[in-house]
Design a protein that fits this description.
- The structure holds two protein chains of two kinds.
- Chain A is an all-alpha fold.
- Chain A has twelve helices and two strands, in the order H-E-E-H-H-H-H-H-H-H-H-H-H-H.
- Chain A has a two-stranded antiparallel sheet with strand order 1-2.
- The longest helix of chain A has 34 residues.
- Chain A starts with 7 loop residues before the first helix and ends in a 9-residue tail after the last helix.
- Chain B is globular and about 75 Å long.
- In chain B, helix 4 packs parallel to helix 7 and helix 4 packs antiparallel against helix 12.
């Protein structure tokens, strides 16, 4: 490393663009949002300080916010509980199968690179009650009574969206577990096999404990990502029918940029931010393990 | 049955199951492309039919009167500029953070890394207000700045990891030859960083190409919209012209798929490397 004193100017010069952009576009606006959340602000009347009123309104009176909060949390839990086991399962399956590993890996990951907007639109068609694949398929195999309105039905909209979330993102998590599993020295599982351990025992006794840190990282990723779900829901159901699929990011968007209640919208954003930070801290603590040593 | 025979059968079953699952990923895309070439009546009559009537007019309608062509151009422009700026700015920052020894370098790096946790929603309103006031709404820079800013944490993280990894002899040799540190960066370090720069370029381009929220809020002018926004408008304007919508989706999705077809290993690695180390 070169000493600082001679190069102070260079360091500052090189650091400044990134620091400036980051502070002006990320850091400062966050503080600004927190500040704004204590105001009633709609560009027509004067900006008025109202203390915690926005927050009390959110958590006591606002029924739609309550729905959006519940939906967001529900989607978060479902996203973790469904995607993590399935992704691990797929990763194990791909490591075990003898042919086609690369093909499966590539195909399962593919939806990740597509825009959620495109994925959402495509699946809106698949879910279309009249000509969509799902209903037509059910009719074709004789299950006409199981057809439904899917995205247009309060009872099925969240589940329908959940399916699309899994479709798009499971491949991503699978790749993380795949990398973790492939890092396990084969000698360990060989020794276990020689000792007579079956596949399931090897999985629960060796694989799972070793990939536990990755499960932790992945869970944090899913949790913080699910708090921000917007694109898919905006395109597939727009929070409907009747706010039944409303989520926090969507509600914040509409409150701020359609209803022009910027103070209130800022408060929702603050709640979202706090939840992101809280979830990260809590989950990191939950999954904290020591480093693994291989003997 | 011998053990080997049993293993072969279970392997075959596993393969079959995985293959069927892969169909659930591929078939929707196939369905998308086929049906984007049908007329609405054809689609309604038989969504399963494999041979469409090749209505290329769906594409031209989407491209021209649906303004998908303009949006495509806008997306390309915004994405390329964002990636280029991010590469330069992030590698300069990583250089300053890791190739020099100074007291607060760890603190500043930590400051950048906190940004990984921050959701964009907590910046939307202030940015919107400021951009509105200075007349930057519906200008490309209103998207480039947020895209770059939110790309910086992960990009700097990856680049600084790289920059910490090679010996200081490299700079010292150049300095002895009379090169100032600035020259050292542009002539030696930057070219050396090709691999992490490629990684960063990929995931930043993908994120910029697919991004919706900023684009939705900051670019409402239909001549400046990016593709994702244009696609959402489609739902309103052509909401009963299903096949034209499908054509628009294909236009958005095909560049990603083609790139993925050729670069899949690199793309997968790029999008997931930031996650694990973070």
């Amino acid at each position: 490393m070169v000493s600082m004193t001679r190069n102070k100017k260079t360091i500052i010069l090189f650091l400044l663009p990134a620091l400036l952009i980051y502070i002006c576009v990320v850091a400062a606006p966050v503080f600004s949002t927190v500040y704004n959340s204590f105001f009633k602000w709609n560009l027509v009347d004067a900006k008025k300080f109202i203390g915690f009123n926005n927050f009390t309104q959110l958590f006591t009176i606002d029924k739609i916010f309550k729905t959006s909060l519940n939906n967001t949390l529900l989607l978060m839990v479902l996203s973790i509980v469904i995607q993590v086991p399935l992704a691990i399962l797929l990763a194990v399956a791909i490591t075990s199968v003898t042919r086609g590993k690369r093909y499966f890996k590539t195909v399962y990951f593919m939806p990740n690179i597509l825009a959620s907007v495109a994925v959402g639109l495509l699946w809106s068609f698949i879910y279309n009650p009249e000509f969509g694949l799902i209903n037509r398929f059910l009719i074709a195999i004789g299950l006409e009574n199981s057809t439904g309105l899917w995205l247009a039905d309060q009872k099925t909209v969240l589940q329908s969206i959940m399916v699309v979330i899994c479709w798009q993102f499971i491949g991503y998590h699978m790749i993380l577990y795949l990398a973790a599993i492939e890092n396990i020295p084969p000698s360990i599982s060989e020794m276990a096999t020689i000792d007579g351990a079956g596949a399931w025992k090897r999985f629960t006794g060796i694989t799972l404990p070793i990939i536990k840190p990755i499960i932790g990282i992945d869970t944090v990723l899913i949790a913080t990502g699910s708090l921000r779900y917007f694109d898919l829901i905006y395109v597939m159901s727009n929070g409907g029918p009747n706010h039944s699929s409303e989520v926090m990011a969507l509600y914040m968007y509409y409150k701020s940029f359609r209803d022009m209640q910027y103070g209130y919208g800022s408060a929702i954003a603050v709640v979202l931010l706090c939840m992101c930070l809280l979830v990260t801290v809590v989950l990191n603590r939950l999954f904290r393990t020591e480093d693994i040593e291989y003997y | 049955m011998t053990g080997n025979h049993k293993k072969k059968i279970s392997d075959a079953i596993l393969f079959a199951v995985l293959a069927i699952v892969s169909l659930t990923y591929l078939y929707p895309l196939l369905w998308l492309i086929i049906n984007s070439l049908k007329t609405d009546d054809e689609l309604f009559a038989n969504p399963w039919s494999i041979i469409p009537s090749f209505q290329l007019s769906n594409y031209s309608t989407a491209w021209i009167s649906g303004k998908v062509g303009i949006s495509f151009f806008n997306s390309v422009l915004v994405s390329l500029i964002s990636v280029a700026v991010t590469i330069v700015v992030a590698s300069m920052a990583a250089f300053a953070l890791k190739r020099f020894k100074w007291k607060y370098s760890g603190l500043v790096l930590g400051l950048f890394l906190i940004g990984i946790m921050i959701p964009i929603h907590s910046t939307l309103i202030p940015l919107f207000m400021v951009f509105n006031r200075v007349g930057l709404l519906n200008r490309y820079i209103s998207l480039v700045l947020p895209y770059v800013a939110f790309a910086l944490p992960t990009s700097i993280f990856i680049l600084s990891g790289f920059m910490a990894s090679f010996p200081k002899e490299i700079e010292e040799a150049a300095i002895m030859d009379g090169c100032a540190m600035r020259g050292v960066f542009w002539k030696i370090i930057f070219p050396l960083s090709k691999t992490p720069i490629a990684t960063i370029s990929i995931f930043n381009f993908v994120n910029a190409w697919n991004e919706l929220m900023f684009a939705l809020i900051f670019m409402s002018d239909e001549n400046k919209m990016t593709l994702p926004v244009s696609l959402t408008r489609f739902k309103g304007q052509y909401s009963t012209n299903w096949t034209i919508q499908l054509a628009a989706v294909v236009i958005m999705v095909v560049p990603s798929l083609v790139t993925y077809f050729f670069l899949n290993d690199k793309i997968i690695k790029s999008l997931t490397v930031g996650a694990v180390k973070g």
